[in-house]
Amino acid sequence: MTTIGTDIAHAIALLQQGKLVAIPTETVYGLAGNALNEATVASIFEAKNRPTFDPLIIHIADWRHAALWVQDIPEKAEALAAAFFPGPLTLLLPKRPVISDLVTAGSPFVAIRVPAHPMARKVLEALDFPLAAPSANPFGYVSPTTAAHVAQQLGEKIPYILDGGPCQVGLESTIVGFEGDAPVVFRKGGIPIEAIEQVIGPVTVQEHSSSKPSAPGMLLSHYAPGTPLVLGNLRELAAQSPGAKIGVLAFQEPLPGLPAAQQVVLSAKGDFAEAAQHLFAGLRYLDGLHLDLILAELLPEAQLGRAINDRLRRAAAKR
Ligand code: TXA
Ligand code: MG
Fold it and tell me: Which of 61, 178, 291, 309 has CA 20 to 30 A from 258's CA?
């Protein structure tokens, strides 16, 4: 069984022994282990039941040391790092040989990020290796934004969960790579595309690919609850589902006539950042009610609304 606690020294000691620890980041909780230890990296894939073709992000304390792990860093990558690290950004860059093919699933590029959560930073600053850390959920399920979420699904598999409270951002990092010098957003996330474009100009956004994704977070069905989720106009969807036990995930206003306990309102005041914070916990809550159907509505397609809609569409995709 796992322990949940706030003992940073204990987390550091376990990581130094090659063990796995779930750590808080500002985006979602990560399932962390020594990125330079192949046995540890293999155990991350195993604990998550994650296919080894799906590469891991490495986390470092300080961008100034990035050249230890990556090379040929484009100017636009430096500009993004200066603007957003530490924070919810991941850069895809050519790896140095010290990063194993297991971490990158054979790709010559490694995903690297500097997280902002103070506990994650303290842990990373104490270590002399980067941490490989995917989101701390079973492969394909909704990402965890509290320590309790991690314990519910991976508690049997990891000795310690470092509790840093609910995640401030609530969406995974935005992943940016480069084709030559041209920036490509491979995953929408905690840094809005508009903010990225303010720093480096226009970017291409890669929408999901189906069979051979360059980022499996881009798989059509991902981030998915167990209960079927349908997207659209809440009133119309409810009218089309007579007799079904339904739950509702609404942006600002609940659906009249349905008990409040079966509804999650992401942000009554219509704030995208607040909606993002509540999204994954809301999906988990509704999933836990074991209803027939979750009805959800899309947000305006701007700022963090784009990343939230991306997750909702994947959660709704047929498996
Ligand atoms: O916010 C985040 O990024 C969180 C926290 C824990 O840092 N991590 C996270 O990791 O979301 P994960 O493994 O759940 O999602 C990482 C995504 C995957 O879709 C993976 O395929 C992609 O990043 N990725 C990682 N390395 C890659 C690489 N070398 N090339 C292409 N895609 C890569
Ligand atoms: Mg994930």
Answer: 309
For 52-97, write each residue's pLDDT tens digit: 999 999 999 999 999 999 999 999 999 999 999 999 999 999 999 9
The confidence score (pLDDT) of residue 211 equals: 38
Q: Whose CA is nearest to atom 15 of ligand 1?
A: 134
Burial call 154-191: b when 16+ CB within 10 Å, e when fewer: beebbebbbbbeebbbbbbbbbbbbeeeebebbbbbbb
Contacts of 65 (CB under 8 A, 6+ apart): none
Global pTM reads 0.95
For atom 3 of ligand 1, the residue with the nearest CA is 173
Ligand 1: residues with CB < 6 A are 25, 27-28, 30, 54-57, 88, 90, 92, 104, 107, 109-111, 115, 133-135, 172-173, 175, 214-217
User: Quick one: tokens of 125?
Assistant: 């600053």
Ligand 1 centroid, distance to 55 Cα (angstroms): 7
Distance 50 CA to ligand 2 centre (A): 10
Return the CATH number of the domain spanning residue range 229-316.
Answer: 3.40.50.11030
Give the CATH H-level superfamily of domain 3-205.
Answer: DHBP synthase (3.90.870.10)
Give the model's pLDDT for residue 213.
46
**How do the domains of the chain map onto residue ranges?**
3-205, 229-316
